[in-house]
Amino acid sequence: MAKIINLAFLAFSGGESSGGLLDVNPGLIFWVVITFVLLLILLKKIAWGPILNSLNERESFIKDSLDKAEKAQNDAEKLLEENKANLAKAEDEAQKIIEQGREYSEKLKAQLLEETKSITQKMISEATSEIERKNREAFNNLKEEVADIAINAAEKIIRTTLDKEKQTKLINDYLKDLNKN
Amino acid sequence: MEINTSNAIQDTLHQAKGDVGSDWIMHHILDSHQLDFAPFGSIQLPHLSLFGFDISITKHVVFLWIVAILLLITFKIAASAYKKSRIPHGFANFIEVLIVFVRDEIAKPTIGKGYEKFLPYLLTVFFFILFSNFIGLIPNGATVTSNISVTTTLAILSFIAVQAGGMMKNGVFGYFKGLIPSGVPAWLLPIMFIVEILGLFTKPFALAIRLFANMTAGHIVIFALIGLIFFMKTYFVAPVSVAFALFIYLLEILVALIQAYIFTMLSSLFIGMAVHQDH
């Protein structure tokens, strides 16, 4: 039996003592397994671990950076929007303040004008009454003076012409006339 | 008596092939106990055995180790670049493109959630096959991936990764239950179970054969084209042979890339199918 198998094998392999194309060599399999498993372990430690780690790290770093950049841009945009709003608000306020100031000054002006007018009016009226008073005073003074002068004159006349009755009558008439005036 | 018969048959078969056999092509494709440094001769490699097993350091074992050392050096350099800066330049950047390709184009879409666990295996397989394929394109270099033992081992490792992934996610019982699609009539269950179990094993088998055949075929064609010059014993065929061989060689560069991609892609796809059984 063994002989037949041996012969069949020889025929199949073309009679080559070194083995055919499809011969499986257990020794080689042994070495391949050992070499490959060792290679797998060593490469995993030397290369795949560090390289894949740094690849992942880099990818996550890039992703983080992109996220961060996007966030920063959003923040900046928001800030800009806020600044714009603030600026508009401030401008409005300034406008309002200017308006208020203008209004106030207008009012003040009107008030001052009014006051000045009334004061002037008062001053004018006061002056007028003063002038009147002074006038009257002066007139009274004048009247007294004139009376004095008249009396003096009468005295002189009396002294010179002693027609008493006539004289008194004359003086009375004169005084009457003076009073009328 | 037995030995005599065997020897006789062996001799007969050798004779039948004639003087201009294809032995020299097979010599370049197959594993052997010597390292060729044509035109400077060759080095004999020692025979080793452990518990009766032949574990000789053959040509393919040597190239296996060369590939492993190259991979370690390459990725040590690439990884150290990441310590200097967050964004490496030049060489490490190129390696990064390939790693990101495996991660984003292979592992992520096919496995989806939880792909990180399988990424080291997929990356190692991808670069191991890629480097092996390219080492085989260097003159005097041997293509480790054109040896069926190597591709079978890789396929078995992928198979283990697929089963382990499926069982870790769904539980051992849940995984086997999930193999059978829901809504199948009860009387079909025994047949479906057998078919699905067979399907589990055909996937890695296809993986192994695909890689092996692709990497072997190109080399054989190149050797055959060059061989035409010696078969025909004329110089006039040389330009044609060299031109065609060069074309195949360029094609092989493409195939080297594509096969590394396909093996990784399919492994990843199978892992994804085992992990997410519901679709």
Question: Can you tag this structure with a few keywords?
Answer:
heterodimer, A: 3 helices, 90% helix, rod-shaped, B: 279 residues, mainly alpha, two-stranded antiparallel sheet, 9 helices, 4% strand
Beta strand count of chain B:
4
Largest sheet of chain B: 2 strands, antiparallel
Radius of gyration of chain A: 70 Å
Pair of chains with the largest interface and how many residues each contributes: A-B, 44 and 59 residues
* Largest beta-sheet details of chain A: none
Number of strands of chain A: 0
SSE series of chain A = HHH
- Share in helix of chain B: over 70%
N-to-C series of helices and strands of chain B: HHEEEEHHHHHHH
Mean pLDDT of chain B: 83
Number of domains of chain A: 1
Number of helices, counting only DSSP H or I runs of 4 residues or more of chain B: 9
Distance between the termini of chain B: 60 Å
The unreliable regions of chain A are 11-18
Rough shape of chain A?
Answer: rod-shaped
Bin the strand percentage of chain B: under 5%
**Which stretches of chain B are low in confidence, meaning pLDDT under 50 for 5 or more residues running?**
none
Q: How many domains in all of chain B?
A: 1
Class by alpha and beta content of chain A: mainly alpha
The number of distinct helices of chain A, counting runs of at least 4 residues, comes to 3
Please specify the SSE layout and strand pairing:
The complex is a heterodimer of chains A (181) and B (279).
Chain A: H1 2-12, H2 26-160, H3 164-180
Chain B: H1 2-17, H2 23-29, E1 34-36, E2 42-44, E3 49-50, E4 53-54, H3 59-84, H4 91-111, H5 119-135, H6 148-170, H7 172-179, H8 189-232, H9 238-275
Antiparallel strand pairs in B: 1-2, 3-4
Helix pairs in contact in B: 3-4, 3-5, 4-5, 4-9, 5-9, 6-7, 6-8, 6-9, 8-9
